Amino acid sequence: MTQPILSARDVVKTFGSGHTRVRAVDGVSLDLAAGELVTITGPSGSGKTTLVSILGALLQPDLGSVKIAGQEIATLGETALSMLRARTIGFVFQSFNLLEALSARDNVLFPAHLAPGGARAAGARADALLDRLGLSARAHAMPGTLSGGEKQRTAIARALINEPKLIIADEPTGNLDSHSGQEVMMVLHDVARDQDCAVLIVTHDQRIEEVADRVLWLEDGTLRDRKAEPRKLARDPVCNMLVDGGLSTIFAEHDGRRYHFCSERCRERFVADPQSYAAGGALATAAERSPT
Amino acid sequence: MLNWTLRELLLAPQQLVASVAAVAGAFLLVLFFEGVFAGESVQIVALIDKTDADVWVMQKGVGNMHMTTSFVSDWKVDAVAEVEGVAKATPILYMNTTIEAGGRNWFSYVVGVEANDPRVGPWQMAAGAAHPSPGGAVVPEIFASDAGLKLGDTVRIGGRDFRVDGFSRDTFSMANSISFVSFGDLADLMNSLGAVSYILVDAKPGVDPQALADRIKAQVENVNALPRAVFVAHDYSIAVQMGLNIIWIMTLIGGALAVLLTGFVVYSHVTERERELAVMKALGVHNRSIYAAMCAQALIIGGLAFILSLALMAAAMPLTAVLAPKISLAITADAVMRVGATALAVSLVAAVIPVRRIVSVDPVTAFQQ
Ligand SMILES: Nc1ncnc2c1ncn2[C@@H]1O[C@H](COP(=O)(O)OP(=O)(O)OP(=O)(O)O)[C@@H](O)[C@H]1O
Ligand SMILES: [Mg+2]
Fold this sequence. Notes:
The complex is a heterodimer. Chain A is built from 9 helices and 14 strands. By secondary structure, chain A is an alpha/beta fold. Chain A is globular and about 70 Å long. Chain B folds into 2 domains: 2-44 and 239-367, no CATH class; 61-221, no CATH class. Chain B is built from 12 helices and 12 strands. A 6-stranded mixed beta barrel of chain B has the order 3-4-9-6-8-7. In chain B, strands 2-10 form a two-stranded antiparallel sheet. Chain B is elongated, with a radius of gyration of 28 Å. Classes of the chains: A alpha/beta, B alpha+beta. Bound molecules: adenosine-5'-triphosphate (ATP) and magnesium ion.
């Protein structure tokens, strides 16, 4: 593997103190190489935004090291850090964060002012990006008049304008319809493949997981690579839903077997009368290829 | 960045107008108090200033005019006239008293002047004779407008009736007024027995007033002599101590309010932009540029407010002259510079404090709130 663009080691971040203390990121290590597309999934509040903010040099970790393009960010001065943010990293925020005073096109061009060549040289690139993201007609609209999807696509174009080596997107399709969502994911995928970028996306979108090089799962502040592990799909014997047996924490033992459930309610119904459910559940758990 | 700075400011024009108007209102208050202070300061020494003598001679031990009495024997007028470098020596009588006019009492300097010598007297007239004849008085025009006094009406000065011969302008302030009667009448009233109060000295061309004053003191016994500028300065400082300091305190309080209001407006302006500033920082904008943008916006708000307050003050001056003629307003370059410098300095400080807080934290911290 070539030198990673992003290399994080044992990153820890806690918020608050005393009984409100939250360990949002708990000892995460991660390498990301050029051309790689990696997704992070996890339950709400599991620390995804916190983690990618640290990896995108927007938040200092309490412990651990983060190197971007070979530079340890904790040691960077204010000038080097702002240059890194402007030129090496393209960040797409969960909540768009467009500059309200500037039109969509000027928002896209804003980071270009911070890169060599300036905004003039980037004009054609901005128009091409707007076109590709289906925003040509809205280029001169103000953010206040854009729909959520248009805002997010503008934010993505803004993240790409300086052709950064590392792109981090925090739930970029969360506010998009499925068509725009797919378009956005294709753009990010193409960028990883064609521009030799490292792309890290926080998403719940199954389609991008299919094309991702790695699918990471963040829970309680720690990362697991889900693609590397065999999936242990099990069928909930009560409602018949498929649940990931490797991740599910709701289960019950019956007759020497372990049954997984989608929710606490299903588990309670099962426990109340295991006999009537056990047969169906046992049949369906043919999918469960327990490694142990 | 400059583009953003200006567009961002114009994004909510009503808000900008409200901020500028609030700050301008505060500055106007200060300018107004400063104007009253300066106007009163001019007015309080108007008699000395407008009479335009090179040297004032007075009783030994006396150094000013406001709230004092001075007696100099009349033969000293000739003695002063003979001192080398003196072109002319003119005696005046002077007392502080209250004038009853139109059923009201007015504090006034009463100056006794020789009817046949126009050397001393009112410098600007509104109506009537400029020099009072025996039994007559020239009083401020305000007496007419405020107490309904007309030419030929009677006023009481020191318990004696005088006929109003004329109305003068520019002889009234909140702290004092200036009236003129004939020398003989005032001599009677003061029972001055041939003494005079002050001797006004005109120097020959090219004679230094300070040197002349020193010479008079040396050659004429028991008198004090002061060049006009020194005499004005003495009286001014006495007046400030005795009454104007109230206006000065009001100016200070107004100034403090203006500083607080400006600080508050600019501080809120920047704080409201906390999220946008954090986003810019996240996009890679240098802290320096964020400081520059917010300082520029603060200076624009402060500068516009300052210009607006000057314009309002310019409009307030003629308006005050009509609506509240008793208030003397004067606007000095000094006051304008002081208010302008304070406006800009406060705006800058009020912008820098929140920007410092915003740029000192990690950018995401600001927009997670
Ligand atoms: N600035 C902060 N101060 C205090 N607690 C915080 C802060 N930011 C995040 N947290 C807490 O850290 C945990 C992780 O939050 P984070 O936003 O990273 O989760 P997330 O996985 O992105 O969630 P979501 O899927 O809802 O976006 C949460 O418990 C959250 O309340
Ligand atoms: Mg999040």
